Amino acid sequence: MHMNPEHYDFVIGINLTPEEKELSVLFSGEARPHPGHTIGPSVHDYYLIHTVLEGEGLFQSGTFSAQCKSGDTFIIFPGALFSYQADRDAPWHYAWVALQGIGVQELFLAVGITREMPFMHSANVAELHSLYERIRNSFMQSAYPQLESLEASGWARLLLHQFGLGNVSALPLHPAEMPEIIDRQIDQAIRWISLQFHQQISIDHLASSLGYHRVHLSKAFKQRTGLSPKQFLLKIRMDKARDLLGGTLTIEQVASSVGFNDALYFSKQFRKHTGMPPSEYRASLRRGE
């Protein structure tokens, strides 16, 4: 804990190696300012999030202004002119975290935070406080600062997740606009097949795991993709096989990599799908056809 003449108490953790490009924590802290303590007007070149744990204070950024109390979070965007002031009768106790990275603004949008509305409220103050402490405690000046930075970034993502849970009305996708359950599960099936095509995928098992009969799932799947699950799986495998045949793997290795234990059966399926056997397709690639 570090004492600061403008605060009753003040503690901070600082990242020695903020190298993650998408999201990186620069520092995180917590303080109880004196009554009327003011910051700004000024600007920062990083994102700075404050969550009020107790007390009150005034936050202003551009044309936005809010009297903040326990559970309120305000966000300072890079380049935005801001100021904030602790209440003179009930000065706030707040925690903060500074972020940088090319993915931060997109992550903010995902949880309903924008430059125009840099403010939200959450009822779960204890959980937010715990996450701020975990971020700050990541920086214990160990022998592995890069690992500290990774840990802090992980906790920061969980903090943003908690903001999203408390801010669902502002999320880009409102409950009334959410897809039907079957649509979500078709998305899951598409994603699963696209990622696990190299495995021995059972369409019956996939349907069962999603809570549908194979016929029902296949019908909904074909309405979405134009293909049955089995046809979609074969297409994904053949598309990947085309890519791999441009490399140095053997035909047997390509077959195994796209989910075929039998290279001969793979060759037959590939020829049926593309009009030529794998060896001829590879030769055509090398000829530049």
UniProtKB/TrEMBL annotation:
Pfam families from the UniProt entry: AraC_binding, HTH_18
Domain HTH araC/xylS-type: 187-284
Database matches in CDD domains: cupin_MmsR-like_N
InterPro entries registered for this protein in UniProt: AraC-bd (IPR003313), Homeodomain-like_sf (IPR009057), HTH-like (IPR037923), HTH_AraC (IPR018060), HTH_AraC-typ_CS (IPR018062), Tscrpt_reg_AraC-type_HTH (IPR020449)
Keywords, sorted A to Z: DNA-binding, Transcription, Transcription regulation
Molecular function GO terms recorded: DNA-binding transcription factor activity; sequence-specific DNA binding
Top-rank lineage group of the source organism: Bacteria
Matching SUPFAM superfamilies: Homeodomain-like, Regulatory protein AraC
Protein name: AraC family transcriptional regulator
Natural source organism: Paenibacillus borealis
